[in-house]
Amino acid sequence: MATTRKRTLPSGKVVWQCDYRDGGGARRSKQFALKKEAEAFLLKARHEVGQGTDVADSASITVAEAADLWIDRATAEGLERSTIDQYKQHRDIHIVPEIGTVKLNKMTAPAVQRFADKLAETRSRAMVRKVLVSLSGIFSEAQRVGKAASNPVSAVRIRVSKRDKGRVEMPSKLELRAILKATPAKHKPFVFTAAFSGMRSSELRGLTWPDVDLDKGVVHVRRRADKYNKISFPKSEAGTRDIPLAPTVVKILKAWKEEYPKGELDLVFPTGSGGVENHGNLLNRVFWPIQVAAGVSIPTDKLDDAGDPIMDAKYSLHALRHAAAALWIEQGWQPKKIQTVMGHSTITMTFDQYGFLFPSTEDDAAGMQAIEDRLLAD
């Protein structure tokens, strides 16, 4: 039976004490200075016991301990190494230094909001939102093992405005032409495929010849290589997709298939020994030098022996993915098709990144005139 009673302690201090039995039948008690606080706690405790989510103060663990449980669960479930590394970064850099010693039952929604607001003082709002996703995962795992009664993160929102997001960076058509023209013959298969297929670097690095149908001019995205060069399946169902290839790409790949470095994995773009190519090597040895040679570059604060500024590449490999999407949109492909070939899990993601590229279907002024005419016509 749960009760609230007034009690005078040996010290003479008067408190209000709640007595109740938890979900396991153990007797619990908690003291408060005010009656209304005690009654509010008892109401909450009754509800949590009834729902089977009650966690006594003595059974609660710290955020740091819960974060370790979360990482252990992710590891046991076989999540990708890169994903677990990201989880660890959120834990070690953002979460534990700020609230690691706080017990889970003290992390109310207002407490989580204060934590998020403090992070936002020194981190981008996008990063704060990612950290909150990880913190929510920590609470969910703690709930699963009976160490947390609720997930207060679900009540906290960090909005990232469109102003904060900015537009994706990509080469213009003139820059893209210059890049393709400056690409040496040995690198054309990779660069041209990237520019015309919109595939992610990980997908290009994990692409195998059985997934390339040169007769039909289609590439089947069925696997990827993570940053540790481990071959696995796409991260999401949407990542598994088919992409049409441009005729020039088909021609280049047909010739490349006769001379590419052979290996057990039968990769389309392998290392010289046939293994998985490293993303950093593709940037440093291939794409960045090509950009500098093409004049698609920016000056650095360093000078060469002649006193001229040393140039640096302007774009990442991912910029070619964005450029491909822009070309498809210019061609008139509909948003749903763009979503499919890009491998986006939602149409919202497509519009968030490329919404500004989709043309208006009619002139705005003419449209408003038509609306006015229909409304005010006699």
Summarize the structure.
Helices cover 48% and strands 12% of the residues.
What can you tell me about this protein's structure?
The structure is a single chain. By secondary structure, the protein is of the alpha+beta class. The protein folds into three domains: 52 residues; 103 residues, Tyrosine recombinase, N-terminal domain (DNA polymerase, domain 1, Orthogonal Bundle); 153 residues, Orthogonal Bundle (hpI Integrase, Chain A). Helix content is 48%, strand content 12%. It has 15 helices and ten strands. The strands form four sheets. A three-stranded antiparallel β-sheet has the order 1-2-3, with helices on one face. The model has no long low-confidence stretch (mean pLDDT 88).
Strand content of the residues, in percent?
A: 5-15%
Radius of gyration: 29 Å
Assembly classification: single chain
Strand order of the largest sheet: 1-2-3
- The end-to-end span amounts to 75 Å
Please report the total strand number as a whole number: 10
Q: Look up the CATH topology of the largest domain.
A: hpI Integrase, Chain A
Structural class: alpha+beta
Return the average pLDDT rounded to an integer.
Answer: 88
Low-pLDDT parts are none
Q: Characterize the largest beta sheet: strand count, sense, and whether it forms a barrel.
A: 3 strands, antiparallel
Query: In the CATH hierarchy, what is the architecture of the largest domain at level 2?
Result: Orthogonal Bundle
CATH homologous superfamily of the largest domain - what is it? Answer: Intergrase catalytic core
User: What is the general shape?
Assistant: elongated
N-to-C SSE series?
EEEHHHHHHHHHEEEEEHHEEHHHH
Instruction: Return the domain count.
Output: 3
Which CATH top level class of the largest domain fits? Mainly Alpha
